[in-house]
Amino acid sequence: MTGIGENGQVGFLSTMFRVAKMATTGKIIRQIDTPIVGGRCTLSLRLKRDGQDKHYVVLAGIASGNYQYYPLELSEFSDFASAIDAMKTLIAAQANPQS
Questions:
Q1: Disulfide check for 22: which of 14, 29, 71, 75 has CB 3.0–4.6 Å away?
Q2: Residue 72, class by beta-carbon neighbours within 10 Å (0-12 exposed, 13-18 middle, 19+ buried)?
Q3: 67 by DSSP, 3-state: which?
Q4: How many beta carbons lie within 10 A of that of residue 48, not counting itself?
Q5: d(Cα 61, Cα 68) in Å, to the nearest integer?
Protein backbone atom coordinates (compact mmCIF):
# COMPACT_ATOMS: atom_id res chain seq x y z
CA MET A 1 0.00 0.00 0.00
CA THR A 2 1.35 3.45 -0.83
CA GLY A 3 0.44 7.10 -0.55
CA ILE A 4 -2.61 8.28 1.35
CA GLY A 5 -3.66 4.78 2.40
CA GLU A 6 -0.41 4.18 4.22
CA ASN A 7 -0.52 7.53 5.96
CA GLY A 8 -4.14 6.93 6.90
CA GLN A 9 -3.28 3.54 8.35
CA VAL A 10 -0.33 4.90 10.30
CA GLY A 11 -2.47 7.76 11.58
CA PHE A 12 -5.23 5.35 12.63
CA LEU A 13 -2.79 3.05 14.44
CA SER A 14 -1.11 5.99 16.14
CA THR A 15 -4.49 7.23 17.34
CA MET A 16 -5.46 3.77 18.60
CA PHE A 17 -2.20 3.44 20.58
CA ARG A 18 -2.69 6.93 22.04
CA VAL A 19 -6.26 6.08 23.05
CA ALA A 20 -5.15 2.79 24.64
CA LYS A 21 -2.32 4.52 26.51
CA MET A 22 -4.57 7.29 27.85
CA ALA A 23 -7.22 4.79 28.93
CA THR A 24 -4.89 2.34 30.65
CA THR A 25 -2.16 4.54 32.12
CA GLY A 26 -2.15 7.71 34.18
CA LYS A 27 -3.26 8.24 37.74
CA ILE A 28 -6.99 8.45 38.46
CA ILE A 29 -7.56 11.68 40.39
CA ARG A 30 -11.35 11.36 40.69
CA GLN A 31 -13.86 8.81 39.42
CA ILE A 32 -17.63 9.14 39.16
CA ASP A 33 -19.59 5.98 38.27
CA THR A 34 -23.20 6.07 37.11
CA PRO A 35 -25.16 2.81 36.83
CA ILE A 36 -27.37 2.57 33.71
CA VAL A 37 -29.59 -0.08 32.10
CA GLY A 38 -31.01 -1.14 35.43
CA GLY A 39 -27.55 -1.47 36.98
CA ARG A 40 -26.28 -3.91 34.37
CA CYS A 41 -23.91 -1.33 32.88
CA THR A 42 -21.87 1.57 34.23
CA LEU A 43 -20.74 4.85 32.72
CA SER A 44 -17.58 5.98 34.45
CA LEU A 45 -16.01 9.44 34.22
CA ARG A 46 -12.37 9.44 35.29
CA LEU A 47 -10.24 12.53 35.72
CA LYS A 48 -6.69 11.34 35.14
CA ARG A 49 -3.17 12.82 35.21
CA ASP A 50 -0.33 11.56 33.05
CA GLY A 51 3.37 11.47 33.87
CA GLN A 52 3.85 15.08 32.70
CA ASP A 53 1.09 16.34 35.06
CA LYS A 54 -1.30 16.82 32.13
CA HIS A 55 -4.96 16.19 33.03
CA TYR A 56 -7.52 14.51 30.82
CA VAL A 57 -10.83 12.67 31.21
CA VAL A 58 -11.69 9.10 30.26
CA LEU A 59 -15.31 8.12 29.70
CA ALA A 60 -15.62 4.37 30.21
CA GLY A 61 -18.58 2.20 29.32
CA ILE A 62 -18.53 -0.99 31.35
CA ALA A 63 -20.85 -3.94 30.79
CA SER A 64 -20.58 -7.65 31.48
CA GLY A 65 -17.12 -8.45 30.06
CA ASN A 66 -17.16 -5.45 27.71
CA TYR A 67 -15.14 -2.30 28.30
CA GLN A 68 -15.12 0.73 26.01
CA TYR A 69 -12.83 3.69 26.72
CA TYR A 70 -13.08 7.18 25.27
CA PRO A 71 -10.26 9.49 26.38
CA LEU A 72 -10.98 13.20 26.08
CA GLU A 73 -8.65 16.17 26.18
CA LEU A 74 -9.97 18.77 28.65
CA SER A 75 -11.28 20.96 25.82
CA GLU A 76 -13.13 17.96 24.33
CA PHE A 77 -14.61 17.15 27.74
CA SER A 78 -15.73 20.78 28.09
CA ASP A 79 -17.49 20.53 24.71
CA PHE A 80 -19.10 17.25 25.81
CA ALA A 81 -20.27 18.82 29.09
CA SER A 82 -21.78 21.73 27.13
CA ALA A 83 -23.66 19.25 24.96
CA ILE A 84 -25.00 17.57 28.11
CA ASP A 85 -26.13 20.94 29.47
CA ALA A 86 -27.91 21.67 26.17
CA MET A 87 -29.63 18.28 26.30
CA LYS A 88 -30.71 18.88 29.90
CA THR A 89 -32.21 22.22 28.83
CA LEU A 90 -34.15 20.49 26.03
CA ILE A 91 -35.38 17.80 28.41
CA ALA A 92 -36.53 20.41 30.93
CA ALA A 93 -38.36 22.30 28.18
CA GLN A 94 -40.13 19.09 27.09
CA ALA A 95 -41.07 18.22 30.68
CA ASN A 96 -42.43 21.72 31.33
CA PRO A 97 -43.94 22.95 28.05
CA GLN A 98 -45.31 26.46 28.20
CA SER A 99 -48.96 26.84 27.22
A1: 71
A2: middle
A3: strand
A4: 19
A5: 5
